[in-house]
């Protein structure tokens, strides 16, 4: 198991893991449940060499744990590739089945297409906003999605509506009834 030394170390470890399953164990040396569970987690780490196990010492990294909303120990998060976080839960020696079930569910070889996601955007922003941590992160600016060429509408050729005079009353009625029936269709088909 690899001990996480800082917020940057956690972020880098997750980003460098690629499609490998990563289990992050948040623990405290003074926590009885953490002490009791530790040998079993070590055993599971040895049985699953293809899984990256990380440990975050709550006592040394309280500020980082608060930013990541970790308030119960022992606490686990599973991450993989472009999916980012797969699951989060707390468990003890008595509920180790929860951990084993999560391992069984997420251990099989899987491929997540795209770049490795790591921590979620809101978690990265929370870490960067925490003055106790030396972690810098600039949120990605939101860019509007490009409109495919086939969906782009060209402006009508010829004179504009104001140049052509008032619309014909029949045209207004037809447009309104078409819009009304479209709205009714949308409302009646929505379940």
Q: What would a concise description of this structure say?
A:
The chain has 191 residues and is α/β, with parallel strands linked by helices. It contains 6 helices and 5 strands.
What does this structure look like?
With 191 residues, the chain is of the alpha/beta class. The protein folds into two domains: 2-129, Glutaredoxin (3-Layer(aba) Sandwich), CATH 3.40.30.10; 159-189. Helices cover 38% and strands 15% of the residues. The protein has a five-stranded mixed sheet with strand order 1-3-2-4-5, with helices on both faces. β2, α2 and β3 (52-57) form a beta-alpha-beta unit. The radius of gyration is 27 Å and the shape is globular. The two termini are 49 Å apart. Mean pLDDT is 82; it is low at 169-191.
Topology of helices and strands:
Layout: E1 2-3, H1 7-16, E2 21-27, H2 32-47, E3 52-57, H3 62-67, E4 75-80, E5 84-90, H4 96-106, H5 121-129, H6 169-189
Parallel strand pairs: 1-3, 2-3
Antiparallel strand pairs: 2-4, 4-5
